[in-house]
């Protein structure tokens, strides 16, 4: 899909370089952190020793203790190490430093605290499960040089994985209503990532819980008002994320999904112009650059929806063209000179170009 616009091998190198340059850069750093005692007054590396990177590039003066960005930055490295052998060695060097048993055990100690029940819920926790899934798949690949290490990283991550699944399993039944925001709190996006994980590891109990809650939240939605999107700082589409989640839930019943989708789309089946790529007024603004991420996530969500449609579906071509335009806009908006987008947009780009949510 995106190879129409850009060379994929050079994109792999570019986005790997973004992550490699920052996953172990501790400062500058801005911590959002619940203090439970004086002992919690420590630097990022001590608080969360696996996922502490501040994701700063070049001469930017802003920093951010984005645990979720650190987590999905590591996902990016695992993903590219798996699919591009020219990057495997470099990516493994970084992963070797982060994914030690000691580091990940300390991550568990930090998160497993009554004052941190909502820590990174649901966005960061969903990406942690994506990282787990990627490592688990990689551990089953034939990598003779790194296989022992990959298996060890996978095992090191298991206690944190179990804590995250337990926490989400406890929280979901108590969530009375879905959060339909275009940012980290959104429910549909996180459920999509976690459902992929549950399917992969054959956790039927967790998968059934996610599917039940997804249907409870979204099964009756009709004529979604796409013209209300986007908000000015969105990096996710609430409407498309919902549809992308439901196609996962109904993955074995495409006819049922098409029936749901026909009810969900606008009554005249003409998607509004608001789903066209937005203008980004200032790519150095940490909130306004969210719109570049919106383009990337829209593109992969549309591709997921298209994947469930028959070749003769009346909207297949329209959705495909819309996906292409958003993909092109999002990929060309990424600028290494601006930390504000660079520290996370590479992950969204790699998720898109490698068709992670589909394959």
UniProtKB/TrEMBL annotation:
Pfam families per the UniProt record, alphabetical: DUF2891
InterPro entries: DUF2891
Domain of life, per lineage: Eukaryota
Protein name per its UniProtKB record: DUF2891 domain-containing protein
Natural source organism: Adineta ricciae (Rotifer)
